[in-house]
Design a protein that fits this description.
One of its GO terms (molecular function) is phosphatase activity. One of its GO terms (cellular component) is cytosol. It is a single chain. The protein is an alpha/beta fold and 266 residues long. 37% of the residues lie in helices and 23% in strands. The protein has 2 domains: 152 residues, 3-Layer(aba) Sandwich (Rossmann fold); 101 residues, Hypothetical Protein, Haloacid Dehalogenase-like Hydrolase, Chain: A, domain 2 (2-Layer Sandwich). The strands form 2 sheets. An 8-stranded mixed beta sheet has the order 5-4-3-2-1-12-13-14, sandwiched between helices.
């Protein structure tokens, strides 16, 4: 196995414990990897404002953040945008029109601002999980303000499965639609996923994918694990994620990220 020069880490269910914290052990371990010259990057479907606190918690300096599942690569401290791919406003508008007709919950992400039409149980739950604050726009939400980094729809899993199928049938080839959790349906630009994201990130830092360790737990981590030279799944990961991994580490609540980095990098 080539020496690992970059580590890309999912947030929810991977770096973060179930209570949303990052352990001191994990912080120390990732700082030790950084001190060895390894690039450590958070790779998440979240936007900058909700990923930044965890980057600051790791204390890794101006490290890269792979945001919106690879649609945006931005540095933590200087906020330098290294790559960005968006959903055109016109396409997002068509999707918002469909959501309005169908009565779907929908969220947009534009210029690091989270917007929703209504203050309902789904947006309040999202704010609780991500420590974010949504801009509640009422009917103005359905006049999309600009190009979107992504859109997200929340609901019961079976309902979201049906929404996914309808979006893909109505707008073939426009969006990459997948689950980051059973009640989170992510709608991203076509061609954007964490696998392409870590390839781009590696190119920016002169690192090949065979020199990348990637750690994740959910469906939206699969592309990243398949692209990485050394894919690691958490013990709490879905079975399909474990099947794509070269190694299964401890769970997120048992410092699985630290355990894998200590074993294979330090």
């Amino acid at each position: 196995m080539p020496a690992i020069k970059m580590i890309t880490i999912d947030l929810d269910g991977t770096l973060l414990r179930s209570d949303g914290s990052v352990s001191d052990r994990t912080v120390r371990t990732l700082q030790a990897a950084r001190d060895k010259g390894v690039v450590v990057a958070i790779a998440t479907g979240r936007m900058y404002q909700t990923a930044r606190p965890y980057g600051e918690r790791l204390g890794l300096g101006d490290s890269p953040l792979l945001l919106f599942a690879g649609g945006l690569i931005e540095t933590l401290e200087s906020k330098k945008i290294l790559f960005q791919q968006v959903i055109p406003r016109e396409w997002a508008q068509e999707l918002a029109d469909l959501a309005r007709r169908r009565g779907w919950q929908l969220q947009t992400y534009i210029d690091d601002v989270l917007r929703a039409a209504r203050d309902d149980e789904w947006i309040r739950d999202y704010e609780r999980i991500t420590h974010s604050k949504a801009c509640i726009c009422g009917d103005d939400f359905y006049h999309v303000q600009g190009d979107c980094n992504k859109l997200l729809s929340r609901g019961g899993h079976d309902d979201l499965v049906a929404r996914k199928a309808l979006i893909e049938k109505t707008f073939p080839g426009r969006f990459n639609v997948l689950f980051s959790a059973p009640t989170f349906l992510e709608i991203m630009p076509q061609g954007v996923d964490k696998g392409e994201g870590i390839r781009r990130l590696g190119e920016l830092y002169g690192i090949g994918t065979d020199e990348i360790m990637a750690l994740g737990d959910s469906q939206n981590d699969l592309d990243m694990l398949k692209a990485a030279g050394f894919p690691v799944a958490m013990a709490n990961a879905a079975e399909e994620v474990k099947a794509a991994a070269a190694y299964v580490t401890a769970s997120n609540d048992d410092d699985g990220v630290a355990a894998a980095v200590e074993k294979f990098v330090l």
